[in-house]
Write a structure and sequence with these properties.
Helix content is about 25%, strand content about 30%. By secondary structure, the protein is an alpha+beta fold. It has two domains: about 60 residues, Winged helix-like DNA-binding domain superfamily/Winged helix DNA-binding domain (Arc Repressor Mutant, subunit A, Orthogonal Bundle), CATH 1.10.10.10; about 160 residues, Chorismate lyase-like (Chorismate lyase, 3-Layer(aba) Sandwich), CATH 3.40.1410.10. A six-stranded antiparallel β-sheet has the order 4-5-6-9-8-7. Strands 1-2 form a two-stranded antiparallel ribbon. A hairpin with a 5-residue loop joins β8 and β9. The protein is elongated, with a radius of gyration of 21 Å. The mean pLDDT is about 85.
Amino acid sequence: MDGTVFERIRSDKEPLYLQVKTKIQELISKGEDLVGRTLPPENVIASQLGVSRTTVREALRMLEEEGIVARKQGLGTFILQGGSFIESGLEELRSITEIIRKLGMKAGTEGIRVGEQPAGSEVARKLQVAEGEEVITIERVRTADGERVVYSYDVIPRRFLSGRDITLEIPKLEAGLFTFLESECRLKITHAVSYISATTADDNIVSRLHARPGEPLLVLDQVHFGMNRQPVLYSKDYFRTEKFTFYVIRRRR
């Protein structure tokens, strides 16, 4: 790889070594036939990104642990895996659309289904509404560069969309649910309580994601809260583990 291949890192809340790691993954995912080739030297990467060599080494160490690259003394850093892979930290609340776009990939939505139904006991408890209160359900498949990677099931109390025909809002929903809630419903999501679990693809997921029967999936079960600490959205997202991974930065006290 010759010439300038990285753009300088801009200010971001995320630690520098994770930003460097993301930049390298972006380079690998966008290239063709890169497996077996070497990355630019550490000092070149550091210079182009505007970071220290220590930061670059930490990013490469993490990539090596994940089996994406291999470092050989005196020879360089070799690329072992190509293709796209989406990685995100859980410390900061971002929509799936934002996560995909942040990695330089095109985010898309397919197969939106919307409906209305009375809240069951679990949904009522999550959203702190009365059992039987009307809620709106939204099912979507999220894509990254055209590939199906996430199946999303979202529930919103009907009262937040009073007077709206949700079926007419589908084009706006395709731009992202967070964007729709904030711009159209004036619901600013401030934080979420998230639970992570594992499952396998059932018939519905197989059909929607084109996944293999029994394929392992990561489930993110979340209640999103607004400015007044009131639940405004309950979501359940099923991520293909072949394409998505999440990490958490843990600090010792």
